[in-house]
Amino acid sequence: MTMVQLHYDSGLWFFDPANPPGGFADDPEGALREISNSRRVRVLVVDDEPTITETLVEILNGEGFDAMAASTGEAGLSSLQSFMPDVIISDVVMPGMNGVEFGIRVRSLFPKCRIILFSGQTATVDLLSDARKHGHEFEIVPKPIKPQNLIAMIRRGVGN
Amino acid sequence: MNESIAKKLTLLNVIASVTALLCASAAFFAYDWTYARRSLLNRMSIEAQIIGYNCITPLVFNDPQSAQRTLEALRASPHIIYGAVYTPAGRFFAGYWRGAKMEGHLLPLPAPSQIRNRFPFDSEYAVVEPIFLHDKLVGTVYLRSDVGELIARLESYLTILGIMSLVSLGVALVVSRTAREAISSPIVRLAETARLISRDNNFAVRMEPTGSRDEIAVLINSFNSMLSEIQRRDAALQESEAQFRTLADSVPQLAWMAEADGRLFWYNQRWYDYTGTTPEQMLGGGWESLHDSKTLPDVVKRWKASIQTGMRFEMVFPLRGKNGTYRDFLTIAAPLRDSHGSIVRWFGTNTDITERRRAEDALRESEKLAATGRLAASIAHEINNPLEALANLLFLAKRQPSKSMNFLVTAEQELDRIAEITRHTLGFYRDTSTPVKMSVSEIADGVLALYDRKLRFKKISLIKRFSQDATICGFPGEIRQVLANLVANAIEAMPVEGRLKIKISPAREFTAAGRPGVRFTILDNGPGIASEQMTKIFEPFYTTKKDVGTGLGLWLTQNLVRKHQGSIRVRSAVNHGRCGTAFSIFFPREMVQNEYLPAQSRAEAEG
Q1: Are B196 and B205 in contact (CB under 8 A)?
Q2: pTM of this prediction?
Q3: Residues of B in contact with A97 (CB under 8 A)
Q4: Sheet hosting strand B461-466, strand order edge to edge
Q5: Are the C-beta atoms of residues B326 and B317 closer than 8 Å to each other?
Q6: What is the pLDDT of residues B298-347, one digit of tens each?
Q7: Which pLDDT score, from 0 to 100, does residue A65 have?
Q8: Do residues B183 and B190 lie in contact, with contact meaning Cβ atoms separated by under 8 Å?
Q9: No. of H helices and E strands in chain B?
Q10: Interface probe with A: pick from B379, B390, B392, B455, most Cβ of A within 10 Å
Q11: Is the pLDDT of residue A10 over 50?
Q12: For the structural domain made of B251-352, what CATH number should be given?
């Protein structure tokens, strides 16, 4: 069993910056299994469409996840510390910070966090290939995606 | 005075010498004449006194024969023609006559006042001399003399004068000939040279120096150096002309020159190369034959207007090449003015813009495609988002039958949104080949529906003033693109909670023609456009949004407006607290069939 380098304080999980959570990078699935054993998988949904975030949060909560919504990348970043998501599902084309930029920022702060981008338009391809040039690979799913497929995809990553 | 300088000089010489001679002669003559007359009268007086002295005794003793003998002595003086002695009572006593003709002819003793002795009024001179003995008058001598002596003297004088005149005349002629050699002949040669130069335009001729150092030599030197200066200037002129020709032949444009009255008189080599004409064919308005008959009247009209007003000529028109095909040329002609500002000639160039036009068309096409692509992407986003929401809502409705009603109502709203977007956006892909009648307000509504989400997101308040009878003829897809470009620009420029005003109304154009049509005005309260950017915003590839814009949006907008024969105006203010930009587009109600309508765009900046 891998050590979980997070500490729990007043109902919130923190990670210690002095001890980077390299263990997750070595064995992310193991880490997630550990988390899933201890608590529900946390999913952050970022999209500028309120209908999408509201429905997805409701669906995911109904499926046994702990889901939370953010309407922009900036809002998503500020909730990272408190929410500590295991998985982030983010729209790509958003006002302000776009999904790829948001994903890169999250990676630099929480390398263990799984990031799934979902996008409704082809312009995303350019953003992704730009990101790839800088060494950033993201999982990408097209919009619209059936909720059961999205759930299956999240679960696949969690293991079992 | 049409005489030559040589003749004038000779005449002057002769007149001067003859006049001098005559004056001198007249003075001598007058002096000599006076002297001769006086000496004649003196001699007569002395002779009369001698006769009187010798006749005292005969008078006292009343012996006329003795007196007669004394008088006979007058024979020695040939000029005396009459001599007589009278008694104090005035009675004739004794007499002498020369020649028999006057023999015995007695003359009365004249009173002294009657004696004047003036030649030539008196043909004879008279002397009356009283004879005294012991202060008692005993008789009077009366002598008369002819003036033959004086006449002879006069004759000899005139002879001498004649000879002297002839001699001096000869001398004057010789002197004047010498003077002519020295003075007038170089001047004559100078005149001859000048005549030769002006006749042959040969400035290489030079005058031989005379060898002397007088004013004539100075004149000849100056003349020669003037010729050298003219030659030097000619050479410089020819060189600059050659440079100009070389330059004019090496520019890629066709070039030409016209007189101030508009007659074209010179063309560069490229003109002849392109048109396949000869200089002879271009004489007298030959250029008109190279024009399309459709555009020629307009070209001639505007050319004449330029010549009348002196305004620069600028126009695009086709010119026929030697292979018979027409190519489009941008023609610019500017007047060359002299120091007084009056036009000396016109210099014009024709630039082949066919390739440029093709490239611009291609660019326009590709930008239209790119714009369509961007539009398609944003449409995909607009549709896929509600589809995603729809999928989620249906999933939830199935999972939570108790709450399914709420989910289905929301799902219906999402479906309506999809339907709305497709209805408005499909027009972007469907365009007609001929202009159709359309409502600008309806198109604007469709465009705003597309940007509804962005407007809501930025919390922009929209003020619409749409007139419902604002209809024009045109291409709906292109008008939609124009409006979409301006709306997108305005939204991007505006801050959160900005105000966007859009007005559409029937209007007339702000020009003399005042065509009827529709004016679309969009006003944002963004930061405004600085005046130095204002001139560039319609240029292709000019962008202030490097990462998101292609810099072709406004350029394409202007092109589309131009295609609809409309005009576009921009006003912008960058003042803090009172900033914003207003684009105003006028679309004419009907388009006129004319390819060569000039472009109309104006950009203004407000302080």
Answers
A1: yes
A2: 0.40
A3: none
A4: B461-466, B499-508, B516-524, B578-588, B567-575, B601-606
A5: no
A6: 999 999 999 999 899 999 999 999 998 999 999 999 999 988 889 999 99
A7: 93
A8: no
A9: 15, 17
A10: B392
A11: no
A12: 3.30.450.20
Query: Has residue A144 been placed in a domain?
Result: yes
Q: The tokens of B364 are what?
A: 């326009």
Query: Any idea what the CATH number is for the domain that residue A98 is in?
Result: 3.40.50.2300
Does the residue A129 lie in any domain?
A: yes
Strand residue runs (E) in B45-187: 80-86, 92-97, 124-133, 136-146
Report the largest interatomic distance among the alpha carbons of chain B, rounded to a whole angstrom: 213
Tokens 């005549």: give the residue: B195
ipTM value for the complex: 0.73
Write out chain A residues lying below 8 Å of B409, CB-based.
none
Min Cα distance A85 → chain B (Å) is: 21
- Domain B431-606 CATH superfamily: Histidine kinase-like ATPase, C-terminal domain (3.30.565.10)
Give residue ranges of A with CB < 8 Å to any B CB: 48-49, 51-52, 55-56, 58-59, 62, 93, 95, 118, 120-123, 142-148
For A63, the domain range is 40-158
CB-based contacts of B90: which residues, under 8 Å, 6+ apart?
Answer: B108, B109, B140
Domains held by chain A: number: 1
Neighboring chain B residues of A118 at a CB cutoff of 8 Å:
388
CB contact under 8 Å between B393 and A51, yes or no, is yes
CATH 3.40.50.720 holds for B5-154: no
Other C-beta atoms closer than 10 Å to the C-beta of B359 total: 11
Work out the average pLDDT over B280-304: 88
pLDDT at residue B425, as a whole number: 60
Query: Are B393 and A120 in contact (CB < 8 Å)?
Result: no
Instruction: Find the mean pLDDT for residues B213-224.
Output: 84
Radius of gyration of chain B (CA): 62
Shortest alpha-carbon distance between residue A17 and chain B (Å): 35
Gap between the Cα atoms of B419 and B46, Å rounded: 168
Confidence of residue B100 (pLDDT cuts 50, 70, 90): low
The encoded tokens of residue B369 equal 């495609």
Residue A136 lies inside a defined structural domain of this protein: yes
The reply to whether A26 falls in a domain is no
% of chain B with per-residue pLDDT over 70: 91
What residues have CB less than 8 Å from B61, skipping those under 6 apart? none
Judge whether B480 and B446 are in contact, CB under 8 Å: yes
Rounded Cα distance, B198 and B462, in Å = 84
